[in-house]
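Course assignment 3, question 2. Fill in each field.
Student: A.L.
Task: Predict the tertiary structure for the chain below.
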Amino acid sequence: MLSLDKVSFGYSPGRALIQNESLSFEPGRTYGIIGRNGSGKTTLLNLISGLLTGYRGAIRFDGMESRKRSRDYLEALYYIPESPVRSDLKISAFFRLGPLYPRWEREIFDTLLKKNGLEGDMSLKSLSHGWLKRVYFYFGLAVRARLFLMDEVNDGMDMPAQRELVREMVAHHDPERIVLLASHHMEECQSLLDDILVMEKGRICYSGPLDEALSLTGWMEASDFKGPESDLLQRKTILGTEYVLIRHPEQHGNAVRPADLVTFLEAVTMEGKESDHEKK
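Answer field:
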């Protein structure tokens, strides 16, 4: 299990970005961390990976503290940042790096490379940003790390590439692995997620199962809305018809269309319109 216990962190003295957050993540589940740019998603991943160490509280994976970056911790961790290292290193070098991970399966990496027409003599510098992230992603599946982190998961990938990422993640599901995927737009990967965390200005304003989150808000025609003003989050006019985004959609039956992940993000981070299920 991965746990954060009363974690606080700031880049400047006296200005905490993340304040007193406690969370837990279970093996076999995929977590989506969503939020606008600058909301703290990358900071959270860097804290968990041990790249940032000056925090208060504790971050532990299977009892190992992240800031110590012990060998056992690093062997269990795989992190793809928003902009992976681009160098003259050739793809073939990953076959030499793989055995550094105790659960490495060469065949997985070899198969994924061949499936996508990638040759070992290709240098990382020659790849587009999207293909670079895919190579790191394939390698991450092959090392079978028990803690898999990926920042801005869709960045640089077109729709077919995003769908392939989903297919391969499903095909290589590991009940021992915790997956954390961060992005400000997670629509194509939504089917992967078991749980979501919504971040805004370093604060986690929602954490819980995805299906529960999507049931908390919904759209309906404004003329059909008879609820209290406190349940009304947003108004939008589409092709001459006014719609409202509301809380407690279960009270309005079939008149409500379920909200998507983007809408839910807007709803729970809207200033002065926080979700009733805001994390305490």
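Instructor remarks: The CA atoms of residues 195 and 208 lie 5 Å apart. The chain is about 25% helix and 30% strand.
Grade: pending
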